[in-house]
Amino acid sequence: MVGKSPNPSRRERIVHRAFLRIGQTPLLVTSKFGVSIFLSLDGSRDLPPFAPGPPGRAWAKRLPGPDPPLLLVPLRSIPAMRQPLIVLAAGLVFLAAPVAFPQTTFVDVTDAVGLTSAHAPIPGHPMGPMVGGGTVADFNRDGWPDIYVICGGSQADMLFLNDQAGNFVEVGQSWGLTQPEMCSGAAVGDYDKDGWLDMYVTNFGPPGTSGTLGSHRLYRNVGGHGFQERAALAGLQYAGLSWDGFSPGFGDYDLDGDLDLFVTSYTTSMKNNRLFRNNGDGTFTDVTIAAGIYASDVRGFVPTFADFDGDRYPELILIGDTGTSEYYINNGDGTFTESTHTVDRLDVPNAMGVAICDVNEDMLLDFYVSDTYYTGQPGTGNKLYINQGNHVFTEEAWNYGVQDDGWGWGVIALDFDNDGLIDLGGTNGFPGPYQNYPTKLFHNQGNGTFVEMGAASGLVHNYDGRTMSFLDYDKDGDLDIALFSTSGPFKLFRNDLVNGNSYLRISLDTYGHPALAPDGVQSRVEVTVGGKTQVRYLDTRQSYLGQSEMIMHFGLGVATAADEVRVEWADGFSTVLQNVAANQEITVHAKPPFSQDMLQRGQMADFVVTGAEPGETVLFLYSFEGLGEGPANTSLGSMPIDLLAPVTQFGTAVADAAGRATLTKTISPLAPVRLVYSQAVIQRGTGGVGSVKTNTLTAPILP
Question: In the beta sheet, which residues pair with residue 191?
Answer without folding.
Answer: none
